[in-house]
Amino acid sequence: MLRSIGAVLVGFVGWSVLWLVGNIGIAAIQPDAFDANGLTSNVGILVIILGFSILLSVISGALTARIAAKSHIKHTLVTGVLLLLVGVAVQVSVWDAMPIWYHLPFLAAIVPANLIGARMVTLGRREAMPPLATN
């Protein structure tokens, strides 16, 4: 049970910490692209942030699956849904500050990208296993 909770927490917190650090880094590199509230409507920056979010969701799913002892997909789905719920709250709070083409893919990609990360881990584990002996 603790390992299950830990797997979900590591996936969720990992995504969140990397998101914050990444956004600070992007803002440091392109400070003129952000307003006083840390928001941007710069299309190029939004595309980068969207791609970054998808990458973090894949990483989050992989972390969750790697730590979970079993039921990797179930644990990753829980992580993805938690990230989606928080994502919806955050996106709603800045809905008018950014275009809809950013919000919808951002939210729509969270759970599938998490599951892709988990799938990459489970496929990697299968490839690492020795083949079954045949007679």
What are the SSEs and their pairings?
Elements: H1 2-29, H2 43-67, H3 72-93, H4 100-128
Helix pairs in contact: 1-2, 1-3, 2-3, 2-4, 3-4
Question: Could you explain the architecture of this structure?
Answer:
- This protein has 135 residues and is mainly alpha-helical.
- It has one domain.
- 77% of the residues lie in helices and 0% in strands.
- The protein is built from four helices and no strands.
- The protein has helices spanning 2-29, 43-67, 72-93, 100-128.
- Helix 1 crosses helix 3 (72-93), helix 2 (43-67) runs antiparallel to helix 3 and helix 3 runs antiparallel to helix 4 (100-128).
- The longest helix is centred in the last third of the chain and has 29 residues, at 100-128.
- The chain is elongated, with a radius of gyration of 17 Å.
- Mean pLDDT is 90; it is low at 129-133.
As for the number of domains, it is 1
Distance between the termini: 40 Å
Output the helix-strand order.
HHHH
Classify the beta-strand content into a percent band.
Answer: under 5%
Ranges where pLDDT stays below 50 over 5 or more residues in a row are 129-133
Helical run tally = 4
Structural class: mainly alpha
The percent range for helix content is over 70%
| Shape category | elongated
Largest sheet: none
Mean pLDDT: 90
Kindly report the oligomeric state of this protein: single chain
Gyration radius (Cα, Å) is 17 Å
Give the strand tally: 0
